[in-house]
Design goal:
Layout: H1 2-25, E1 34-41, H2 45-54, H3 56-62, E2 65-71, E3 78-85, H4 88-96, H5 98-107, E4 114-118
Antiparallel strand pairs: 1-3, 1-4, 2-3
Helix pairs in contact: 2-5
């Protein structure tokens, strides 16, 4: 009986130490870099692109590093922007910024953006 109790307590202690050690090296989710995919429809791509390019300072200030701008094969006015933000809070702040809404309206965005915020998962 004593050996069994010793074994159970020892295993619980090992699991406890292992879990806290893993947690100590892992950053909290709100500090992790996130990938973002933003899709919306525009009136006319070339007019939108001029407005998008002019808004680069706002993206840079928000920490948004764009890796690519894409148009749907069957609808060239359906635009997708893929990039990275320093964290999910930065995405929220960027999307809530009145300057962004103004720039989108001016550039001819006609639909509400669909925003996907993704974090990398390890194997």
């Amino acid at each position: 009986m004593n050996r069994y109790l010793f074994f159970v307590v020892g295993m619980a202690l090992c699991l406890s130490i292992g879990t806290s050690a893993q947690g100590a090296t892992k950053k909290p989710a709100h500090h992790e870099k996130v990938a973002v995919i933003i899709t919306h429809e525009v009136k006319e791509y070339s007019a939108w692109r001029k407005g998008y390019d002019a808004d680069e300072p706002n993206r840079k200030q928000a920490g948004f590093k764009v890796s690519g701008v894409y148009a749907d094969v069957s609808n060239p006015n359906m635009v997708t922007i893929i990039g990275e933000f320093p964290n999910a809070a930065a995405v929220d702040a960027f999307m809530a910024n009145p300057k962004l809404k103004e720039a989108m309206d001016k550039a001819g965005v006609v639909s509400k953006p669909d925003v996907k915020v993704l974090t990398a998962k390890q194997k």
